[in-house]
Amino acid sequence: MELSELLAQLNRREPLIGGSEAFLLISAFSQEALKITAELNNSYHEPAEIPVIFSKLTGKQVDASFRLFPPFHTDFGKNITLGKNVFINSGCHFQDQGGIIIGDDVLIGHNVVLATLNHDFAPDQRGNLHPAPVIIKDRVWIGSSVTVLPGVTIGENAIVAAGATVTKDVPANTVVAGVPAKVIKQLKPEME
Predict the structure, then answer these.
(1) How confident is the model at residue 192 (pLDDT cuts 50, 70, 90)?
(2) Is 73 among the residues known to form the active site?
(3) Which residue in 72, 99, 113, 136 has a CA-CA distance of 20 to 30 Å to 144?
(4) Is the pLDDT of residue 74 over 80?
């Protein structure tokens, strides 16, 4: 199985059966991600070097406007897509097998977790994984220590308050807070 086939399966949200060829291939890419993130996290890099290293991690060209303060952790790396002018603060964990798509002008605070996998609910199938993407639209600000669960889309201009756990889609132009996150404020949309 090639990476492109694996990504297609993940992006179709097909379950990963424990021990399957796809499951084993993800494990191999996890080792590559660990190696690249160790390089990223364990020595100083000039700001211009960060997009280059991140491009190696994702297998896609990352825009030169991308900024990241290490450490950063991911257990796959190949299903992350970044827009322009994205900033990721230190201590973030991206579980990206199910897909993480981040739009333009996004700010992500310290210690944010983006999770895209669930285990099967049936005890005898708990080793099986169910992928679902996290999609973060343009101009979103995610505060520190937020957790975003699989299958969630955060709409344009939204703000997710620090410490929130996002379990369902966030409408555009809103502020959400709490566990689980709920809309606490409407924002005025940007003028066109």
Answers:
(1) very low
(2) no
(3) 99
(4) yes
